[in-house]
Amino acid sequence: MTHVAQPNTGKQRDGTFPLWLIATMWTVPALLSTLETVMFARLAKRPMPVWRAFVSEAPQWYGLAVLSPIVIRLGDRFPLRRPLRVSNILVHALASLGVSLLVAIGNAVVNSFTRPSPRTIASATTSWFLSSLPATTLAYFAIIAISYALQSTARLRERERQAAQLEAQLREAQLGALRMQLQPHFLFNSLNAIMALVRDHDTDRAVKALSLLSDVLRATVNSANAHETTLSQEVDFLSRYLEIERVRFGDRLRVTMDVPPELHGALVPTFLLQPFVENSLKHGILRERTGNEITVSARAVDDALAITVADDGRGLPKGESIAGVGITNARSRLEHMYGPKARLSVRNAERAPGTVVDISLPLRMSAAVPA
Protein backbone atom coordinates (compact mmCIF):
# COMPACT_ATOMS: atom_id res chain seq x y z
CA MET A 1 0.00 0.00 0.00
CA THR A 2 1.40 3.37 -1.03
CA HIS A 3 1.06 6.59 0.91
CA VAL A 4 2.00 9.86 -0.80
CA ALA A 5 2.69 13.03 1.16
CA GLN A 6 0.15 15.62 0.02
CA PRO A 7 0.69 19.38 -0.04
CA ASN A 8 -0.81 21.63 2.58
CA THR A 9 -4.34 22.39 1.41
CA GLY A 10 -4.80 25.46 3.60
CA LYS A 11 -6.38 28.47 1.91
CA GLN A 12 -3.82 30.70 0.25
CA ARG A 13 -3.95 34.45 -0.11
CA ASP A 14 -5.46 35.58 -3.42
CA GLY A 15 -4.23 39.16 -3.31
CA THR A 16 -7.61 40.63 -2.18
CA PHE A 17 -8.29 42.60 0.98
CA PRO A 18 -11.45 43.26 3.03
CA LEU A 19 -13.66 46.07 1.68
CA TRP A 20 -13.70 47.78 5.08
CA LEU A 21 -9.91 48.03 5.00
CA ILE A 22 -9.91 49.56 1.51
CA ALA A 23 -12.69 52.02 2.43
CA THR A 24 -10.84 53.05 5.61
CA MET A 25 -7.58 53.59 3.73
CA TRP A 26 -9.21 56.02 1.28
CA THR A 27 -11.44 57.81 3.81
CA VAL A 28 -8.36 59.38 5.41
CA PRO A 29 -7.12 61.24 2.27
CA ALA A 30 -10.74 62.11 1.42
CA LEU A 31 -11.15 63.87 4.78
CA LEU A 32 -7.77 65.59 4.45
CA SER A 33 -8.68 66.87 0.97
CA THR A 34 -12.01 68.10 2.33
CA LEU A 35 -10.26 70.02 5.09
CA GLU A 36 -7.82 71.52 2.59
CA THR A 37 -10.65 72.64 0.27
CA VAL A 38 -12.60 74.25 3.14
CA MET A 39 -9.52 76.14 4.35
CA PHE A 40 -8.56 77.45 0.91
CA ALA A 41 -12.17 78.48 0.25
CA ARG A 42 -12.20 80.52 3.45
CA LEU A 43 -8.85 82.11 2.64
CA ALA A 44 -10.28 83.10 -0.74
CA LYS A 45 -13.28 84.58 1.11
CA ARG A 46 -15.59 82.14 -0.63
CA PRO A 47 -16.57 79.85 2.25
CA MET A 48 -17.90 76.43 1.32
CA PRO A 49 -19.96 74.08 3.51
CA VAL A 50 -18.05 71.06 4.71
CA TRP A 51 -20.53 68.64 3.18
CA ARG A 52 -20.20 70.28 -0.24
CA ALA A 53 -16.42 70.20 -0.01
CA PHE A 54 -16.54 66.52 0.95
CA VAL A 55 -18.86 65.66 -1.94
CA SER A 56 -16.54 67.53 -4.31
CA GLU A 57 -13.35 65.83 -3.12
CA ALA A 58 -14.62 62.35 -2.27
CA PRO A 59 -15.16 61.05 -5.84
CA GLN A 60 -11.47 60.87 -6.69
CA TRP A 61 -10.57 59.06 -3.48
CA TYR A 62 -13.53 56.70 -3.33
CA GLY A 63 -13.15 56.15 -7.05
CA LEU A 64 -9.66 54.86 -6.27
CA ALA A 65 -11.18 52.78 -3.45
CA VAL A 66 -13.62 51.14 -5.88
CA LEU A 67 -10.80 50.47 -8.35
CA SER A 68 -8.32 49.22 -5.71
CA PRO A 69 -9.33 45.51 -5.91
CA ILE A 70 -8.79 45.62 -9.68
CA VAL A 71 -5.40 47.31 -9.26
CA ILE A 72 -4.38 44.75 -6.62
CA ARG A 73 -5.32 41.87 -8.91
CA LEU A 74 -3.37 43.45 -11.75
CA GLY A 75 -0.41 43.75 -9.39
CA ASP A 76 -0.64 40.02 -8.68
CA ARG A 77 -1.26 39.04 -12.30
CA PHE A 78 1.56 41.24 -13.67
CA PRO A 79 3.99 41.50 -10.75
CA LEU A 80 6.36 44.43 -10.41
CA ARG A 81 9.06 42.39 -8.72
CA ARG A 82 12.56 41.49 -9.74
CA PRO A 83 13.32 40.56 -12.40
CA LEU A 84 11.09 43.28 -13.86
CA ARG A 85 9.47 42.51 -17.20
CA VAL A 86 8.94 45.30 -19.72
CA SER A 87 5.53 43.89 -20.64
CA ASN A 88 4.37 44.13 -17.02
CA ILE A 89 5.55 47.74 -16.77
CA LEU A 90 3.63 48.63 -19.94
CA VAL A 91 0.48 46.95 -18.61
CA HIS A 92 0.62 49.00 -15.43
CA ALA A 93 1.42 52.21 -17.28
CA LEU A 94 -1.69 51.80 -19.42
CA ALA A 95 -3.76 50.68 -16.44
CA SER A 96 -2.72 53.75 -14.43
CA LEU A 97 -3.87 55.97 -17.31
CA GLY A 98 -7.17 54.10 -17.41
CA VAL A 99 -7.64 54.54 -13.65
CA SER A 100 -6.84 58.25 -13.96
CA LEU A 101 -9.40 58.62 -16.74
CA LEU A 102 -12.14 56.82 -14.78
CA VAL A 103 -11.46 58.94 -11.69
CA ALA A 104 -11.54 62.10 -13.82
CA ILE A 105 -14.92 61.13 -15.29
CA GLY A 106 -16.29 60.54 -11.79
CA ASN A 107 -14.99 63.91 -10.61
CA ALA A 108 -16.42 65.72 -13.62
CA VAL A 109 -19.87 64.16 -13.25
CA VAL A 110 -20.16 64.74 -9.50
CA ASN A 111 -18.82 68.30 -9.65
CA SER A 112 -21.23 69.16 -12.44
CA PHE A 113 -23.91 68.98 -9.73
CA THR A 114 -22.00 70.30 -6.71
CA ARG A 115 -20.12 73.03 -8.60
CA PRO A 116 -22.21 73.94 -11.65
CA SER A 117 -20.14 75.27 -14.55
CA PRO A 118 -20.77 76.18 -18.19
CA ARG A 119 -18.10 73.69 -19.26
CA THR A 120 -19.15 70.44 -20.87
CA ILE A 121 -18.54 67.08 -19.17
CA ALA A 122 -15.86 66.27 -21.76
CA SER A 123 -14.04 69.53 -21.08
CA ALA A 124 -14.28 69.05 -17.33
CA THR A 125 -13.08 65.46 -17.65
CA THR A 126 -10.03 66.58 -19.63
CA SER A 127 -9.25 69.23 -17.02
CA TRP A 128 -9.61 66.81 -14.12
CA PHE A 129 -7.56 64.16 -15.96
CA LEU A 130 -4.61 66.44 -16.65
CA SER A 131 -4.60 68.12 -13.23
CA SER A 132 -4.92 64.93 -11.22
CA LEU A 133 -2.80 62.63 -13.42
CA PRO A 134 0.37 62.87 -11.24
CA ALA A 135 -1.60 62.21 -8.04
CA THR A 136 -3.67 59.32 -9.42
CA THR A 137 -0.59 57.74 -11.02
CA LEU A 138 1.22 57.94 -7.68
CA ALA A 139 -1.86 56.54 -5.94
CA TYR A 140 -2.06 53.65 -8.44
CA PHE A 141 1.47 52.46 -7.73
CA ALA A 142 1.02 53.15 -4.00
CA ILE A 143 -1.91 50.71 -4.01
CA ILE A 144 0.31 48.03 -5.52
CA ALA A 145 3.17 48.77 -3.11
CA ILE A 146 0.88 48.63 -0.07
CA SER A 147 -0.74 45.40 -1.27
CA TYR A 148 2.71 43.82 -1.72
CA ALA A 149 3.70 44.96 1.78
CA LEU A 150 0.53 43.55 3.36
CA GLN A 151 0.87 40.28 1.46
CA SER A 152 4.52 39.97 2.50
CA THR A 153 3.51 40.51 6.12
CA ALA A 154 0.81 37.87 5.81
CA ARG A 155 3.25 35.41 4.21
CA LEU A 156 5.79 36.09 6.97
CA ARG A 157 3.18 35.38 9.64
CA GLU A 158 2.18 32.19 7.82
CA ARG A 159 5.82 31.07 7.66
CA GLU A 160 6.20 31.80 11.37
CA ARG A 161 3.06 29.79 12.08
CA GLN A 162 4.33 26.87 10.02
CA ALA A 163 7.76 27.11 11.67
CA ALA A 164 6.13 26.97 15.11
CA GLN A 165 4.06 23.97 14.02
CA LEU A 166 7.14 22.25 12.62
CA GLU A 167 9.02 22.97 15.85
CA ALA A 168 6.23 21.35 17.83
CA GLN A 169 6.31 18.31 15.54
CA LEU A 170 10.08 18.05 15.97
CA ARG A 171 9.74 18.07 19.74
CA GLU A 172 7.04 15.42 19.45
CA ALA A 173 9.38 13.31 17.29
CA GLN A 174 12.17 13.71 19.84
CA LEU A 175 9.90 12.74 22.69
CA GLY A 176 8.47 9.89 20.62
CA ALA A 177 11.97 8.54 19.94
CA LEU A 178 12.84 8.92 23.61
CA ARG A 179 9.67 7.09 24.65
CA MET A 180 10.50 4.23 22.27
CA GLN A 181 14.02 4.00 23.71
CA LEU A 182 12.78 4.21 27.29
CA GLN A 183 10.03 1.64 26.98
CA PRO A 184 10.30 -0.68 30.00
CA HIS A 185 10.77 -3.82 27.93
CA PHE A 186 13.55 -2.18 25.91
CA LEU A 187 15.54 -1.12 28.98
CA PHE A 188 14.75 -4.36 30.79
CA ASN A 189 15.90 -6.56 27.94
CA SER A 190 18.96 -4.42 27.20
CA LEU A 191 20.08 -4.35 30.82
CA ASN A 192 19.43 -8.10 31.15
CA ALA A 193 21.62 -8.71 28.12
CA ILE A 194 24.34 -6.55 29.64
CA MET A 195 24.03 -8.36 33.01
CA ALA A 196 24.42 -11.70 31.20
CA LEU A 197 27.62 -10.43 29.61
CA VAL A 198 28.90 -9.38 33.03
CA ARG A 199 28.07 -12.81 34.52
CA ASP A 200 29.94 -14.42 31.64
CA HIS A 201 32.87 -12.11 32.40
CA ASP A 202 32.57 -10.67 28.89
CA THR A 203 33.60 -7.28 30.16
CA ASP A 204 34.51 -5.76 26.83
CA ARG A 205 31.11 -6.44 25.25
CA ALA A 206 29.30 -5.33 28.43
CA VAL A 207 31.17 -2.01 28.46
CA LYS A 208 30.51 -1.58 24.76
CA ALA A 209 26.79 -2.25 25.25
CA LEU A 210 26.59 0.25 28.11
CA SER A 211 28.43 2.81 26.02
CA LEU A 212 26.05 2.29 23.09
CA LEU A 213 23.01 2.58 25.36
CA SER A 214 24.39 5.81 26.79
CA ASP A 215 25.11 7.17 23.30
CA VAL A 216 21.61 6.40 22.06
CA LEU A 217 19.92 8.05 25.05
CA ARG A 218 22.26 11.05 24.88
CA ALA A 219 21.69 11.52 21.15
CA THR A 220 17.94 11.36 21.71
CA VAL A 221 17.93 13.92 24.51
CA ASN A 222 20.62 16.24 23.09
CA SER A 223 19.41 16.33 19.51
CA ALA A 224 18.82 20.09 19.82
CA ASN A 225 15.95 21.67 17.90
CA ALA A 226 17.23 21.15 14.38
CA HIS A 227 14.59 20.14 11.88
CA GLU A 228 17.15 18.27 9.77
CA THR A 229 20.34 16.32 10.23
CA THR A 230 22.79 14.73 7.82
CA LEU A 231 22.20 11.23 6.54
CA SER A 232 25.55 10.26 8.06
CA GLN A 233 24.43 11.33 11.55
CA GLU A 234 21.05 9.65 11.11
CA VAL A 235 22.71 6.36 10.07
CA ASP A 236 25.18 6.64 12.96
CA PHE A 237 22.31 7.00 15.44
CA LEU A 238 20.53 4.06 13.82
CA SER A 239 23.66 1.90 13.88
CA ARG A 240 24.14 2.46 17.63
CA TYR A 241 20.52 1.63 18.28
CA LEU A 242 20.79 -1.59 16.24
CA GLU A 243 24.06 -2.54 17.95
CA ILE A 244 22.21 -2.59 21.25
CA GLU A 245 19.58 -4.84 19.71
CA ARG A 246 22.36 -7.13 18.48
CA VAL A 247 23.55 -7.50 22.07
CA ARG A 248 20.12 -9.02 22.74
CA PHE A 249 19.73 -11.07 19.57
CA GLY A 250 23.32 -11.81 18.67
CA ASP A 251 24.01 -13.04 15.15
CA ARG A 252 20.30 -13.64 14.54
CA LEU A 253 20.00 -9.94 13.72
CA ARG A 254 21.93 -9.00 10.61
CA VAL A 255 22.21 -5.37 9.53
CA THR A 256 23.37 -3.93 6.20
CA MET A 257 23.98 -0.19 5.72
CA ASP A 258 24.38 0.74 2.06
CA VAL A 259 24.91 4.51 1.99
CA PRO A 260 27.43 5.88 -0.54
CA PRO A 261 29.99 8.32 0.93
CA GLU A 262 28.88 11.06 -1.45
CA LEU A 263 25.45 11.04 0.24
CA HIS A 264 26.71 11.32 3.82
CA GLY A 265 26.04 15.05 3.79
CA ALA A 266 22.48 14.77 2.43
CA LEU A 267 19.93 16.44 4.71
CA VAL A 268 17.08 14.35 6.13
CA PRO A 269 14.51 14.97 8.90
CA THR A 270 15.84 14.17 12.36
CA PHE A 271 14.86 10.68 13.62
CA LEU A 272 13.42 9.78 10.21
CA LEU A 273 14.53 6.14 9.99
CA GLN A 274 14.37 4.80 13.56
CA PRO A 275 10.56 4.30 13.66
CA PHE A 276 10.68 2.06 10.58
CA VAL A 277 13.48 -0.08 12.00
CA GLU A 278 11.59 -0.27 15.31
CA ASN A 279 8.54 -1.59 13.44
CA SER A 280 10.65 -4.20 11.69
CA LEU A 281 12.04 -5.39 15.03
CA LYS A 282 8.62 -5.51 16.66
CA HIS A 283 6.48 -6.95 13.91
CA GLY A 284 8.46 -8.32 11.03
CA ILE A 285 11.68 -10.12 11.86
CA LEU A 286 13.43 -12.49 14.28
CA ARG A 287 10.68 -15.06 13.79
CA GLU A 288 13.07 -17.66 12.41
CA ARG A 289 15.81 -19.52 14.23
CA THR A 290 18.25 -18.54 11.54
CA GLY A 291 17.49 -14.85 12.15
CA ASN A 292 16.64 -12.04 9.79
CA GLU A 293 18.23 -9.06 8.11
CA ILE A 294 17.47 -5.32 8.01
CA THR A 295 18.87 -3.31 5.12
CA VAL A 296 19.07 0.49 4.97
CA SER A 297 20.14 1.91 1.62
CA ALA A 298 20.25 5.33 -0.02
CA ARG A 299 20.57 6.45 -3.63
CA ALA A 300 20.50 9.71 -5.53
CA VAL A 301 17.83 9.65 -8.24
CA ASP A 302 17.96 12.83 -10.33
CA ASP A 303 17.31 15.63 -7.82
CA ALA A 304 15.82 13.32 -5.18
CA LEU A 305 17.22 11.28 -2.31
CA ALA A 306 15.75 7.76 -2.27
CA ILE A 307 16.03 5.87 1.03
CA THR A 308 14.88 2.29 1.55
CA VAL A 309 14.43 0.39 4.80
CA ALA A 310 13.78 -3.30 4.07
CA ASP A 311 13.57 -6.50 6.08
CA ASP A 312 13.10 -10.17 5.18
CA GLY A 313 10.55 -10.88 7.88
CA ARG A 314 6.87 -11.81 7.69
CA GLY A 315 5.74 -8.75 5.75
CA LEU A 316 2.38 -7.05 6.00
CA PRO A 317 -0.69 -9.27 6.33
CA LYS A 318 -2.95 -8.82 3.33
CA GLY A 319 -5.25 -5.85 3.73
CA GLU A 320 -3.42 -4.57 6.82
CA SER A 321 -1.76 -1.15 6.97
CA ILE A 322 0.78 0.27 9.36
CA ALA A 323 -0.38 3.54 10.95
CA GLY A 324 1.61 3.75 14.18
CA VAL A 325 2.72 6.96 15.86
CA GLY A 326 6.20 6.85 14.32
CA ILE A 327 5.06 6.34 10.72
CA THR A 328 2.19 8.81 11.04
CA ASN A 329 4.55 11.40 12.48
CA ALA A 330 7.14 10.77 9.74
CA ARG A 331 4.51 11.18 7.03
CA SER A 332 3.24 14.41 8.56
CA ARG A 333 6.74 15.87 8.89
CA LEU A 334 7.60 15.00 5.29
CA GLU A 335 4.40 16.69 4.15
CA HIS A 336 5.06 19.89 6.07
CA MET A 337 8.76 20.08 5.24
CA TYR A 338 8.71 19.16 1.55
CA GLY A 339 5.09 19.16 0.40
CA PRO A 340 4.42 17.19 -2.80
CA LYS A 341 8.16 16.72 -3.39
CA ALA A 342 8.26 14.03 -0.68
CA ARG A 343 6.92 10.49 -0.98
CA LEU A 344 6.55 7.68 1.54
CA SER A 345 5.31 4.15 0.87
CA VAL A 346 5.09 1.03 3.04
CA ARG A 347 4.64 -2.24 1.12
CA ASN A 348 5.44 -5.92 1.01
CA ALA A 349 8.58 -7.04 -0.81
CA GLU A 350 7.87 -8.17 -4.36
CA ARG A 351 9.84 -11.42 -4.74
CA ALA A 352 10.40 -12.55 -1.17
CA PRO A 353 8.87 -12.23 2.29
CA GLY A 354 9.46 -8.95 4.07
CA THR A 355 8.46 -5.31 4.28
CA VAL A 356 9.89 -2.41 2.29
CA VAL A 357 9.68 1.28 3.22
CA ASP A 358 10.49 3.67 0.37
CA ILE A 359 11.18 7.34 1.14
CA SER A 360 11.87 10.01 -1.45
CA LEU A 361 12.65 13.64 -0.66
CA PRO A 362 14.52 16.52 -2.31
CA LEU A 363 18.28 16.02 -2.41
CA ARG A 364 19.96 18.85 -0.49
CA MET A 365 23.50 18.72 0.82
CA SER A 366 24.79 20.08 4.10
CA ALA A 367 27.53 22.71 3.91
CA ALA A 368 29.62 20.74 6.39
CA VAL A 369 29.86 16.96 6.20
CA PRO A 370 31.05 15.21 9.39
CA ALA A 371 34.28 13.30 9.09
List the helices and strands and how they pair.
Layout: E1 2-3, H1 19-43, H2 50-77, H3 86-114, H4 121-181, H5 184-199, H6 203-221, E2 228-230, H7 231-249, E3 253-258, E4 267-269, H8 274-284, E5 292-301, E6 304-311, H9 325-338, E7 343-348, E8 355-362
Parallel strand pairs: 3-5
Antiparallel strand pairs: 1-7, 2-4, 5-6, 6-8, 7-8
Helix pairs in contact: 1-2, 2-3, 2-4, 3-4, 4-6, 4-9, 5-6, 5-7, 6-7
List its traits.
60% helix, 6-stranded mixed sheet, 2 domains, Heat Shock Protein 90, 12% strand, alpha+beta, rod-shaped, disordered N terminus, 371 residues, two-stranded antiparallel sheet
What's a concise summary of this model?
The chain is of the alpha+beta class. Helices cover 60% and strands 12% of the residues. Strand 7 and strand 8 (355-362) form a beta hairpin.
